[in-house]
Structure prediction request, 312 residues.
Amino acid sequence: MTDLRPTDLLRKVPMFRELSDAELQQLGELCTEERFESGDDIVTIGDPGHALYIVLEGEVQVVYPARSSEYELARLGTGECFGEMALLNEMPRSATVRALEEVHTLTLEKSAFQEQLLRTPSVAVALLSTLSTRIRNADEQISGLSDKAMKDPLTGLLNRRAFNDRINEECDRTRRYGEPFSLILIDLDKFKSINDSFGHDIGDAILAWVGRLLSEHTRSADSAFRIGGEEFAVLCPSSAGQVTENAAERLVQVVANARPPVRFDLVVTMSAGFASAPMDGRRPDELFQVADRALLRAKADGRNRVCAPAEG
Prediction:
């Protein structure tokens, strides 16, 4: 059995870390001790939570029951806790916790805990501070995951998933308000031969370099994306016709006039085609097809150039 006092054990519970010694002492006086036999389900998935448990002795298994088997999520031993959030809400248990051997716990019942909150508002204030910090940290983690999910790790540009979301938003805006926008599709010229001749490390360095140039030289309102291997796209809100063609030509010229940061003497060029809504289409697939056909003409006409949508 652990030699730690109830106050020491309660301090290890994340929710209680900001409480004073006196406040922990008050909570410790509310705790009871329980024993469970090997194989006992201490809490069961789906049941309403009613207590926080701290393991004093023994080991428990956290499992998620499935139709055909159970999946072990974790094992907890002396000094570890489970059921923390049951003190604050009525949500059902999200997993089953089972004793793997004889288990001795320190148990804090929700009813006693909530009565203590009413008697000592300082505990409630400290808990709010701790929970707000944990929520903020969780938000930052979720935000970080969201950024990773929407960005291409090699170039730092937005990825195909973000492109699909954004072009649908722009099409919706055009349908509602009649505001035009343009799609520029870009493809690096003869990129396969660069990979074949110099290796994929050099190819990746060039892709990252092009991504940086696109990011630096698109207008502040425009968004650049990497949508495939050597394929890029730029969405240009409130743009159409000659304005979009000028923007695309500027990007093509920037890449052609720059030199990639590799040890080989390489000249990298790219071709582009564009389409504008609502003139060339109102749906994402329509615009993509028109811009792609223009891009193919740019390739066929000698590369390192921009082609507008074909008339008619």
